[in-house]
TrEMBL record:
Protein name as annotated: Flagellar protein
Signal peptide (UniProt feature, chain positions): 1-16
Membrane spanning stretches: 26-50
Pfam family, one: FliO
Family matches, as InterPro entries: Flagellar_biosynth_FliO, FliO/MopB
Native species: Vogesella facilis
Location relative to the cell: Cell membrane; Bacterial flagellum basal body
C-alpha cells in the first residue's frame, strides 16, 4: 500500500496538466508602456488643473503691496518704492537681499492707478548719493 502511494506521488507531476504559457513578452511590454503613459497623462492633467485653478483664484485677490516706482543703481542693485497700507517703503534690492532704507507716509496727491514719475525720485537719489560721497570724502581728510 505504501508503495502504491509512493508511486502515485512520483507520478502526480506527470499526470498534471501541462503548464499554461504566460502572456507573450510583447504583450507585457505593451502593458508597461500603456501604464507609463497613463501615469504621465495623469501628472500632466493634475498639473494643468492646479495651475488653472490656483492662478485663476489669484487674479481676483486683493494685493496689499504694490510697486510704485523703481530705479537701477547698479548692475544688480535697485531702489524700489513699495506702497503698503497707506505707507511707502523705500527698499534697496540686491541679488542677495532686500533692505528697508526709509518709510514715509503716502503722499496725498498721489493717484493709486498711476505710477510715480521717475525723474524726481532719481534726483532725490542722486542728491542722497552725493551727500554720502561728500561725507566719505570728509572722513578721509
Amino acid at each position: 500500500m505504501l508503495r502504491i502511494l509512493f508511486c502515485l506521488l512520483l507520478a502526480a507531476p506527470a499526470l498534471a496538466a501541462p503548464p499554461a504559457e504566460g502572456p507573450s513578452p510583447l504583450w507585457g511590454m505593451l502593458q508597461v508602456i500603456f501604464g507609463l503613459l497613463l501615469v504621465l497623462a495623469a501628472i500632466v492633467g493634475i498639473a494643468w488643473l492646479f495651475r488653472r485653478f490656483s492662478m485663476g483664484s489669484m487674479l481676483g485677490r486683493f494685493q496689499p503691496a504694490r510697486v510704485v516706482s523703481g530705479v537701477m543703481v547698479g548692475p544688480h542693485e535697485r531702489v524700489v518704492i513699495v506702497e503698503l497700507a497707506e505707507e511707502w517703503l523705500v527698499l534697496g534690492v540686491t541679488s542677495r537681499n532686500v533692505n528697508l532704507l526709509k518709510t514715509m507716509p503716502k503722499p496725498a496727491g498721489h493717484d493709486a492707478g498711476q505710477p510715480a514719475a521717475n525723474p524726481p525720485f532719481a534726483q532725490w537719489l542722486a542728491a542722497a548719493m552725493d551727500k554720502a560721497r561728500k561725507r566719505q570724502g570728509d572722513g578721509d581728510k
